[in-house]
Amino acid sequence: MLEVILMMCIGALAAVMANMGIAVFNDGLRPIVPKNLEGRMSRRELGVTAFAMSFGLVIGFGIPISIAGSIILIHSILLGTDIIGLIFKRGKFTTPIAGILGALYGAGIYYGLKAVVDAFKLLPLNFVDGFNKVGEPVVVSFMVFPAIAIVLQFGMKKGIIAFLVAALSRQIIVFMNTEKIIKIGGSPITLSPEGIALIVGMIFLLVYAMREKSTEKNLSTLATLFTDRVTRIKKHAWVLMISGGLIAAATNLLLIAGDPISLNLLSDGKISEGGIASLAKAFGFVPLIASTAIATGVYGPVGFTFVFAAGIFSPNPVVAAILGAIIILAEIFLLTKLAAVLDRFPGIRASGENIRTAMTRVLEVALLVGGANAANTIVPGFGFFAIVGFYLLNEVAGRPIVRMAVGPIGAIAVGIIGNLFALLGLYTPPTQ
């Protein structure tokens, strides 16, 4: 019951914040919301835009990844509450309605995920175990994204250097873990090879980005132009603190995860590795989230996403909630200083969009490979055929389904088709 209440509170609060223009989860929506707040876009247009930008990601990305890992990917909830909150006009009666629907949506995601997984287990061909392979390549592949971001921003040569050093760092850690070289008090310590490689790549990206400094004498772009919008975010700090606390507590209970990488690590019981991956992702997204928040006056319900790491590393939900609230408060009151840093180092500011693009490309490939492996485990031979065909048909058709969703959705489709084959006597499932 505590878990359901927590999910309902997250859904309700996120929907209300979206409705009031305080915070939205979709980075693409954040620059659009002020247009409505300032009367330059109707609420109907905003609602339609929110639906168009978020619905496909909920159905095609958030929910399939959640099913694969048996932990709810935060996109499944907060992209949905963005739609709910932005469809309704702000008002004395409509805002509470948005909150109620958000709460029901949160409960629906919680019970719906359990119901789907339980239903899959009752089928003649239980493909849940096979479907779990969707996330396997994600963890290993994720360490590549800093090198990709470097290539996008600073060129191929620097990206290859970062990639090779990160790859070597990973292999050194594998060797050290195997030989039990690192010990504390006589007990061997195991480090995450992927986590270390990711940190090394991020260091390279940060160093390259900080080499680009502004040549202007008067730095006033973000720091002074958007003072009123930063003040607006600070005015709603208490609401955002509650959101951060709820998210951190839910993460601590392993109800939700902030990204596919940490989700898959957490579902495998690799808590510390999941925390490291979550931290790395949060640092990478600071430039993007900070710049959009400062320029629009609209924050995100999870802030810079450090609240997920706080939830993972906290000993219990209460401590997680307190830390989550404090982290959000600190982020908000550091926005002005961050604006000055982003103005001083334009390379860091520009890296935000490149990091997002790099992460997207890595996830597209990793989830496609994972989906193919899962599908082929469910129905050997036919699985590879189906995923390759599904991917190419989607490309030829103009990509009606986002690339990240092709692998997971295809694996689910193969599982359903495999069950039809089994019922028709065309396929004999292996002994389970």
UniProtKB/TrEMBL annotation:
Residue intervals passing through the bilayer: 6-25, 46-65, 71-88, 95-113, 133-152, 159-177, 189-210, 237-257, 288-313, 320-342, 362-393, 405-427
Domain of life: Bacteria
Pfam family, one: YhfT
Keywords: Membrane, Transmembrane, Transmembrane helix
Keyword DNA-binding in record: no
InterPro entries for this protein: Uncharacterised_YhfT
UniProt name for this protein: Transport system permease protein
